[in-house]
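lol ok so funny story. i was supposed to be doing the assay writeup but got distracted and ended up predicting the structure for this chain instead. priorities right. anyway since i did it might as well share w the group, maybe its usefull for someone
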Amino acid sequence: MIDKKTVRKPLQHTNTYVSQFVVARMDCPAEEQLIRMSMDGLEQNVALQFDIPNRKLKVFHHDNFEEIQARIESLGLGAKHVYTHQIDRKRRTNCS
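and the output, tada:
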């Protein structure tokens, strides 16, 4: 039997965004893993797309940008926010 108190209803998202960061000290998979671990526990799911050679990170998210930015910047990897754009809901984006 499922305890109804512990079951969450799916969040209804009206907006989806992509935010890009330049991460000055992201130069190997260890930093990628550190960033992935920093996203653990977010209430809303995110998708991350890494471009390690160019030290860029794209985050596909909903209305939780401030929390995402704070988590990334708190890692001390020199992350700087470049832009945030709303994504057309009809467009699909591949993330890794």
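Residues 21-86 form a domain with the Alpha-Beta Plaits fold (CATH 3.30.70). Helices lie at 29-38, 65-73.
back to the writeup now i swear
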